[in-house]
Amino acid sequence: MGISLDELQLAARNHGMPLEALRYDVTPVGLHYLLIHFDVPEVPPDWRLRLGGHVERELELSLDDLRARPAVRRIVTMECAGNGRAQFEPHVVSQPWLAEAVGTGEWGGVELAPLLEEAGVREGAVEVLFGALDRGIDGGVEQAYERALSLGEALAGDAMLAYELNGAPLPPQHGAPLRLVVPGWYGMTSVKWLERITVLDRPFDGYQQVHAYRFRRSEDEEGEPITRIHPRALMVPPGVPDFMTRRRFVEAGPCRVEGRAWSGFAPVAAVEVSSDGGDTWSDADLEPAPDRWAWSHWTWTWQAEPGDHDLLCRARDTAGNHQPLEPEWNVGGYVNNSVQRVAVTVR
User: Fold this and answer.
1) Confidence at 2, pLDDT banded by 50, 70, 90
2) Is 177's pLDDT higher than 90?
3) Whole-angstrom Cα distance, residue 177 to residue 190?
4) CATH 3.90.420.10 in the chain, residues?
5) Are the beta carbons of 262 and 185 closer than 8 angstroms?
6) CA-CA distance, 200 to 212, in Å (whole number)?
7) Cα(146)–Cα(266) distance, rounded to whole angstroms?
8) For residues 192 and 180, what is the distance between their CA atoms, to the nearest angstrom?
């Protein structure tokens, strides 16, 4: 089954990061991947963030109120849970990502946990719900985009409310005036255009939580919730491309190959590269990440010999998680972190 007009329409609204942008420690804003579920909403001039629910005291905060609080800045790599979806067979109908649904931003804002502590979370609270301004229909249900985190993750993690990206005010397409950023988790968790935070005394049962973003091998399976980013390495395709096929062409001799690697479970421990389709592997040189939740830069020198080659790269984190050679098919087309393959002709 080919890509449908509906999927092309999605692909025209959203965009991936060109892989040559892996050269940057922090992705320029216009190159960072982008996924908009419904519409970029119109933000009311009297916008306020409202925090309520199962708390002792409700809070209502303007953007100036948030900016007056102690600020934090974190360099965070964010990846879409559907990255790699277009490579699945049989075809999964949705946003047709290849491998470019990723980017790293320097997010500025305030930590989430102190706001929850100020509101006074009441006994019996179990989850924190984040509600957005963007609204539409998904699965036949009209809804605002909403996602929840466990109370423990909201209080103990590095989650933050961001009003800046790369040192400038958050742009409209990335969630202005305020968005959630949950480091280490796939991008669907970092709710954009945030307008309300609600502490719940029961698990959230909305569509985006209990149906979407679950790993299901069949339609009638309940599935497992998708949470943290699985390890991945990507390379900057070397040489120059053919316009249509994107096949690469390089000259014989020493060839510098570079890329980035990341994991939402633990720091990256190693990156390996293969030039023979995965029969043999060599260790790349791995640099420390610029921040705990940011990608790491890696390099490898390839002695390129004339002919056709398949370059592969794969990452392993310190918790022992690693990339598979082949993806595991699932209904939503999620978590395809199989190794990247780049076809190269050496001249």
Assistant:
1) confident
2) yes
3) 14
4) 5-212
5) no
6) 20
7) 27
8) 6
Q: At 80, list the tokens.
A: 């879409």
CATH fold for domain 232-346: Immunoglobulin-like (2.60.40)
The yes-or-no verdict on residue 1 having pLDDT over 70 is: no
* Helix residue ranges, H only, the chain: 5-13, 63-67, 112-119, 151-156, 207-210
Q: Do 313 and 259 touch, CB atoms closer than 8 A?
A: yes
Give the residue among 213, 217, 237 at the shortest CA–CA distance from 225. Answer: 213
As a whole number of angstroms, the distance between CA 192 and CA 142 comes to: 18
In our burial notation (b when 16+ CB lie closer than 10 A, e otherwise), range 35-47 reads: bbbbebbeeeeee
Task: Please count the other Cβ atoms lying within 10 Å of the Cβ belonging to residue 287.
Answer: 14
Taking Cα atoms as reference points, which of 230, 221, 246, 187 lies closest to residue 327? 230
List helix spans (H) across 26-104. Answer: 63-67
Does the pTM of the predicted model rise above 0.85? yes
Architecture of the 5-212 domain: Alpha-Beta Complex (3.90)
Q: What is the mean pLDDT of the chain?
A: 97
The count of other CB atoms within 10 Å of the CB of residue 175 is: 25
pLDDT value, residue 157: 82
For residues 332 and 312, what is the distance between their CA atoms, to the nearest angstrom? 25
